[in-house]
Amino acid sequence: MILFAPSILSADFSHLGDDILRTREGGAQIVHIDVMDGSFVPQLTFGDPVIRSIRPVTDQLFDVHLMVWHPERYVKRMADCGADLITFHLEAAEDPRAVIDAIHAAGKKAGLAIKPATPVEAVRPLAEAIDMLLVMTVEPGFGGQSYIPASTGRIAAARRMFAGLDRETDIEVDGGIKTDNVRVVLDAGANVIVAGSAVYRGDIRNNTRKFMEDFALWEAENE
Ligand code: DX5
Ligand code: ZN
Question: N or C: lower Cβ tally within 10 Å for the chain?
Answer without folding.
Answer: C
